[in-house]
Amino acid sequence: MMAIIIVLIILVVLVFVALMKTVQVIPQASAAIVERFGRYTRTLNAGLNIVVPFIDSIRNRIDLREQVVPFPPQPVITQDNLVVNIDTVIYYQVTDARAATYEVSSFIQAIEQLTVTTLRNIIGGMDLERTLTSREEINAALRGVLDEATGKWGIRVNRVELKAIEPPTSIQDSMEKQMRADRDKRAAILTAEGIRQSQILTAEGEKQSAILRAEGEARAAALRAEGEAQAIRTVFESIHAGDPDEKLLSYQYLQMLPKIAEGDANKLWIVPSEIGDALKGLSGAVGNFTPKGGGPGLTKESPRREQPPID
Fold it and tell me: What is the rounded CA–CA span in Å between residue 234 and residue 268?
């Protein structure tokens, strides 16, 4: 009885194992290689698949999604014999699971070695300055070579990126000094330009201020001259309207002489030649007056002069 139970248990286990090997579930974006007695039979796609147990076997499961593989820094010699370390990143995708399994033993290692050799060939034809400034050119050339070489392996290289290009330490120090000198030069040029512009603006302001000040002084002088001319014109018209005689003018002339001599700076007083005529006119005017009752008065022989009417 125990033997029958053991046999039944063994049969149940074998059936369960057979069912497990018969039904194969492949995840989405994946593929599986099936071999029958060591020979490729077919490729299983995503979903539920049935295989012959103990005859068919799963050789390899491959992810069909795009993969990202960073490679360690590689020393590369430039055209001017300088060693630079370059980090690369490869974006690839398996398009043929069968080719990726049977055409190359390890496509990751093959892509890495192909990247290193291709990168050395490309950088070997460039100097350091061009290498540092031509990343897009290097990426495009590297991607073209890799995509062409990996096509027969069932691999498509979508993108190649250079993460870093590190020149030697001495070259880095020289580059930093050069960049620092360039920045100092640009700063000095900008400072000089600022000072020059400030001086130009200051000169323009002073020029404009002088012009405005001169225009103001000229206008003020013109206004003063116009006012003086108007005052002289008014005085002249008033005098002309009053019709003064020669005697009154002589008297006014004598009154102005002391004012002419005023001031500490007048060390010499020159008597005008017209003073004699003024005195004669004044004496004639005084002779027409006779004292009466202790004060001046009009004589009978000198009648009062009538002023002409003012228009």
Answer: 33
| Cβ-contact 128, 167 below 8 angstroms | yes
| E-strand stretches of 103-177 | 155-166
Task: Tally Cβ neighbours within 10 Å of residue 184.
Answer: 10
Taken in order 166, 167, 171, 177, is the CA torsion positive or negative?
A: negative
CB atoms within 10 A of CB 51: 19
Task: Identify the burial level of 53 via C-beta atoms within 10 angstroms of its C-beta, where 0-12 means exposed, 13-18 middle and 19 or more buried.
Answer: middle
Residue ranges with strand state E in the chain: 23-26, 30-36, 39-44, 47-50, 56-63, 67-77, 83-94, 155-166, 289-292, 295-298
Give the model confidence (pLDDT) of 233-271 as tens digits. Answer: 787 777 667 666 666 666 666 666 666 666 555 555 555
pLDDT tens per residue, range 35-92: 988 889 999 998 888 888 888 888 888 999 999 999 888 888 888 888 888 889 999 9
Are 290 and 297 in contact, with CB atoms under 8 Å apart?
yes
pTM equals 0.53
- Smallest CA-to-CA distance from 145 within 106, 109, 108, 119 is with 119
Distance between CA atoms of 107 and 96, rounded to whole angstroms? Answer: 12
